[in-house]
């Protein structure tokens, strides 16, 4: 995963690992990595085709299982564009290509407790489709 220039620090490093788990879990169909990246109560929201989607993590995981994913370890297209952290809340913006579709994802993450022992997880994924099969029908 490529990155644009960003600050470092322990929280940024932890968030990068969560984003990598999300991307590789989705692209390589690795359910364990998806579950590690997302809070169990996480939601996904966005427009795919003509559908306004708003669904829980379990539905997202089931959807990934039904897609034609890449073999684990194969290269993929993704770029971590930004990370903004305020205390125990963060937003990561990611540009990725998967399942024949180009997306920008906004990942809202929350740390389960302050300090070094806290764990970052995605609580909401909101996405926009730029091109590919997820565009609305004309």
Description:
The structure is a single chain. With 138 residues, the chain is of the alpha/beta class. The chain has a single domain (2-130), classed as Nuclear Transport Factor 2, Chain: A, CATH 3.10.450.50. It has three helices and seven strands, in the order βααββαββββ. A seven-stranded mixed β-sheet has the order 1-4-5-6-7-2-3. Strand 2 (38-48) and strand 3 form a beta hairpin. Helix 1 (10-27) packs antiparallel against helix 2. The longest helix has 18 residues, at 10-27. The mean pLDDT is 89.
Number of strands: 7
Structural class: alpha/beta
Which CATH C-level class is it?
Alpha Beta
Question: Within the largest sheet, what's the order of strands?
Answer: 1-4-5-6-7-2-3
Helix content range: 10-25%
* 3D shape: globular
Q: What letter string, H or E per element, gives the SSE order?
A: EHHEEHEEEE
CATH topology: Nuclear Transport Factor 2, Chain: A
How large is the radius of gyration? 14 Å
Distance between the first and last residues' Cα: 33 Å
Q: What is the level-2 CATH architecture name?
A: Roll
How many domains is the backbone divided into? 1
Enumerate the spans where pLDDT stays under 50 for 5 or more consecutive residues.
Answer: none
Count of DSSP H/I helices:
3
